[in-house]
Every structure is written in C-alpha cells, then in structure tokens.
Amino acid sequence: MRTVEGEEVARGIMNEVTIIGAGLAGAEAAWQLARRGVEVRLFEMRPKKMTPAHKTGLFAELVCSNSLRANGLENAVGLLKEEMRRLDSLVMAVADSVSVPAGGALAVDRDLFAQEITNRVTVLPGVTVCREELTILPEQGVVIVATGPLTSESLAEHIRQLTGEETLAFFDAAAPIVTVESVDMDKVYWASRYDKGGADYLNCPMDEDRYREFREALLAAEVHEDHLGLDEGEATKGKVFEACMPLEVMAARGYETMAFGPLKPVGLRDPRCGRTPFAVVQLRKENAAGSLLNLVGFQTHLRWGEQERVFRMIPGLERAEFVRYGVMHRNTFLNAPRVLDGDFGLRGDPRVFFAGQITGVEGYVESAASGLMAGINAWRRVQGCSTLVFPETTALGGLARHLAGSPTGDFQPMNINFGLLPPLGERVRGKKEKNSRLARRALNALEDFCSGALEDFCSAGCQEVLRIEGCLSGDDLATIQPISDG
Ligand SMILES: Cc1cc2nc3c(=O)[nH]c(=O)nc-3n(C[C@H](O)[C@H](O)[C@H](O)COP(=O)(O)OP(=O)(O)OC[C@H]3O[C@@H](n4cnc5c(N)ncnc54)[C@H](O)[C@@H]3O)c2cc1C
User: Fold this and answer.
1) Is the beta carbon of 146 within 6 A of some atom in ligand 1?
2) Are the C-beta atoms of 428 and 434 separated by less than 8 Å?
3) Measuring from atom 12 of ligand 1, which residue has the nearest CA?
4) Is 413 in the pocket of ligand 1 (CB under 6 A)?
5) 19 lines ligand 1 (CB under 6 A)
6) How many other β-carbons are positioned within 10 Å of the β-carbon of residue 24?
7) What would the pLDDT profile of 29-42 be if each residue is shown by its tens digit?
8) What pLDDT, on the 0 to 100 scale, is given for residue 240?
9) Which of 290, 302, 288, 293 is closest to 321 using CA atoms?
10) Measured between alpha carbons, how far is residue 179 from residues 61, 323, 476 in Å?
11) What is the C-alpha separation between 459 and 465, in angstroms, rounded?
12) Is the shortest distance between the CB of 346 and ligand 1 below 6 Å?
C-alpha cells in the first residue's frame, strides 16, 4: 500500500483514501471517491468478525427495518433522498432499483439491496477491499472512519483516546419478523394509512380491552439481562434512541402512548366493519416476495420466549411464526459538536474524516448522506483543495449543521427533520405548503451550491482536477434541476 505524509496530504499530492467500515456510509463514500478517480482501500471486518446485529458479510446490510422511510418531498427524509439522488448517490440508486411496495415510503428487499451495493462497490476501478478489522487508524494518508454504531471495541477505544472524548454507549433496538403464511388473514386487513399509495400494510386491529390486556402483558414480561452496563431504569430514563425506542419502554410511559405511536389507528378504518379500531399493529413486507413481515415499531428488549407469548396476543398473530426476534444493541457516537467540523473532518486533523452513525446522525439514509458528504470532502482533501460545507438550507447541510453546530452539552443523534433547516423567513399557511417551499428552496440552493463550489474550485487553482475522470462536470450539473415552482 502506498503511504502519504501529512504534509503531502495538505499539499494534495496523494490520490488514495482509506475507508474503515463498509456499511451504508462507507459504501457511499467509496462510491463517491472512486467515481472521481481516487483509489480507495476499504476495510470491512465482517464476515471474519461480526457485530452483534449484522448477519452477513455483505456491505450496507440493513440491521433492522427494511424501510428508508418517506419518499415525498413534503417530508424531510424524502428531500434528503432527492438531494442524494441528484448527487449520484449509490445507496439511493440501489434502493430505488430494489424497492418493495410500502405506501408513501421507500422500503427495499434487504438481501437484494446489500448484495447489489456489495457488487457495485467491489467492481469499481481503484477500490481494494480488505476483509480485516482495523483497531487503530492508519498513521498516514486520508482516512474516513465509518464503523457505525457497533464499532469494534478496540477501535472505539482508540477513537476515544484520539478525540479525548468519552465515546457513548446507548441501547438501540430491532423489530421481530414473522412469516406471512402464519398470519390469520380472517382477522387482519390490507391498507395504507389514509389509503396513500397501495394497500401495502397488513393491519391487526385491537379493541380497547385487547389493547389493555396486551399492554399489561408487555409491562409484566421479562426482558433480557442487561449486558451493556445500562439497566432498564436507565433505558426508560432516556438512554435509548427516541426513534428506535423499545415497545415496552414506550408502553411504560403512559396508557395511550403506544396508541399515539406505532399502534396509531388514524387513517386505518377497518373495511369489514367501517370503524376505526382503538389501536392497530401494522406489519410491513420485509422482502420482495412478500413472504416475511416485520412488526412496525416493535423494537424490543423482551426475552425471545416472552416475545412469542406477548406478541401472539395481537389479533391475527395467535400462531405467528417468528423468523427473527427483536434485539437490542449498543450505539456508539462522537460528541460531534466538540470534535467534528461541518465538512465531517476531525477538528485539528486534516487527514481524518468521520461518516455514518458514529458522527451522531441517525438512520440509514442519514448515515449514507454523511458518507456522501465525507466522500466528496475526502476527494477534495486529496486534491489539495478546500473542503465543502453544504448550504444550511439543504437537508444535507442541515445534517452537517446539527453535528457541528449543536450545543455540546447533551448532544443527541437525530434523524433529518425540517427543524434542522433555517426557517423560511415568511409566514406560510399549512404544514404541507411550508414543507414544500422548504424543499424547493433546498433543491435550488443545492443547484447553486454545485455551480458555486465548482467556481471556487477553479479559483483555488485546481483546474487540473476538473479534468480528472468522474469529477463533477458540466454534464453532472445538467442533471441537477431546480424543481418547478408549480
Ligand atoms: C440494532 C440496530 C437497529 C437499527 N435500526 C435502524 C432502523 O430500523 N432504521 C434506521 O434508519 N436506522 C437504524 N439503525 C441505525 C443506523 O441507521 C444503522 O446502524 C446504519 O447501518 C448505520 O450506518 P453506518 O454506515 O454508520 O454503520 P454500519 O452500517 O453499521 O456499518 C459499519 C461497518 O463497519 C464495520 N466495522 C466496525 N468496526 C470495524 C473495524 N474496527 N474495522 C473494520 N470494520 C469495522 C461493521 O462491520 C459494519 O459493516 C439501527 C442500528 C442498530 C445498531
């Protein structure tokens, strides 16, 4: 392997980047770099050394839900996905090509998704895949650390020493999966909320008596012994991801909390009686064949036997066959506002970038988005050019702003949401209209930014770089269209 001194990096002599971790973020970063002609050494420890959540050696394995969430531009994660598509995201291209029906959301066949990403990255010219765990960062050359929430312990300890920060360990959770053939179809019905998109969810309706019994059983059920140093009390005190909260923790928060959360019945009228149930458990297709269904929002820390006993109280699931049980795991992330800059670089060390969940973004799409930005910036670094901070009015920039600009005191991982973007500066009636204007502003800003960044690039004396294979070119820019005002 060719090595590079720090000074050479600063002068932009080196054309090679080491990426640690081939998850959502690492795979996307590798793609962004390699298509611009940068050589990439991609280290992935699986399958030699597995994490507690991954099951395969494939890149970009989705460890829990198979959903990349909402697709429409009126939703912030839909906007983020669109911005990524316009910047030639690998994760988005593959997700779109292996999607499964999921109403207004983008869900994927998880096996095809991971297989296709692995194939496309592996055959990229200039990419060398090393199936090894790295326990320390390479001493030379530009590095992107994308080792995720389950970063191996030795590397996590090394990063903690490097950044001088406590690396935090939180609980996180994954939902169970059942076979469709084991569901009692006489008790359930297909529908999407408010009939949006196709009838893609299988809905298990509950009356109030059944809901009460179910909640009581859930609260009384045995949970796994804590193996990570946090007890259930700490979990209920908030040491869990809000967006991936175990169902039993949610149930403990209040009688109706579940009925306002994952068991929300609104927009899901039962067509057989014409009434809206008290609560609804939704099951979503897990694979393209539709043979597997996951229990939406049912991440849990219950013992496996207890999961069977309690979840079989759900109407239609009395004989459910579980092909995966819910599990809980560690989550590792940096105190980003203290140690990261808005370009995903480690403050004070021009060689090192971070990407993915370890930066404190949360979610598959957000992790891939940070990989995209870190990849572009690592490319600029090896070319000796200034790095980029995406405009704060874009969803990409909103994420970067959350990391670098949040108060350092109690920094928490966060999904993308419109609250991370600056307000419009004008009063707009209705959430839908407001969100669509925010989206329009974001896509226009992204277009301006791409042309602006290129001009910047030229004035920095990097005209040579504009000619390298895969560099953003006039052709690329032509694909970045402002959305119409209509
Ligand atoms: C249990 C669980 C459930 C989750 N559920 C969801 C969900 O339903 N929806 C959602 O949007 N997000 C979910 N997340 C959060 C997050 O979006 C995913 O974890 C996502 O995969 C993060 O992407 P990443 O690229 O940062 O990390 P990963 O996809 O985990 O990739 C990191 C890679 O680095 C490798 N690695 C780690 N250490 C080393 C090392 N020292 N050397 C070499 N390789 C190493 C790992 O093997 C892994 O392949 C979940 C997280 C967990 C842990």
Assistant:
1) yes
2) yes
3) 363
4) no
5) no
6) 31
7) 999 999 999 999 99
8) 53
9) 293
10) 21, 7, 44
11) 12
12) no
Q: In a 3-state reduction of DSSP, which class is residue 411? A: coil
Give me the pLDDT at residue 165, please.
Answer: 66
3-state helix/strand/coil string of 280-318: EEEEEECCCCCCEEEECCCCCCECHHHHHHHHCCCCCCC
Per the CB < 8 A criterion, the answer to whether 143 and 17 are in contact is: yes
> Ligand 1 centre and the CA of 141: distance in Å?
24
Neighbours of 115 (CB within 10 A): 18
Which neighbouring-strand residues pair with 282?
203
For residue 172, give the 3-state DSSP assignment.
Answer: strand
Burial 361-385 (b: 16+ CB within 10 A, else e): bbbbbbbbbbbbbbbbbbbbbbbbb
In the block, residue with structure tokens 């560099």: 471
Query: Residues of the chain whose pLDDT is less than 50?
Result: 1-13, 226-238, 454-455, 457-486
Per the listing, tokens 């989705």 go with: 62
- Look at residue 345 and give its three-state secondary structure: strand
Separation of CA 256 from chain center? 28
Distance 481 CA to ligand 1 centre (A): 32
Q: Let me know if 429 is exposed, middle or buried by CB neighbors in 10 A (0-12, 13-18, 19+).
A: exposed
The DSSP bridge pattern shows strands 67-70 and 105-108 to be: antiparallel
Is the beta carbon of 21 within 6 A of some atom in ligand 1? yes
d(CA 397, CA 317): 43
Tokens 């704060």, located at residue: 392
- The CA distance from 296 to 182, in Å, is 17
**pLDDT score of 289:** 79
Q: Which one-letter amino acid corresponds to residue 446?
A: L
C-alpha to C-alpha distance for 40 and 33, rounded to whole angstroms: 7
Q: Model pTM?
A: 0.75
Q: Output the six-digit token pair for 246.
A: 């175990």
Rounded distance between C-alpha atoms, residue 293 and residue 178, angstroms:
5
Query: What's the length of the chain?
Result: 486
What is the spatial distance between Cα 438 and Cα 450, in angstroms, rounded to a whole number?
18
Q: How far apart are CA 43 and CA 19, in angstroms?
A: 6
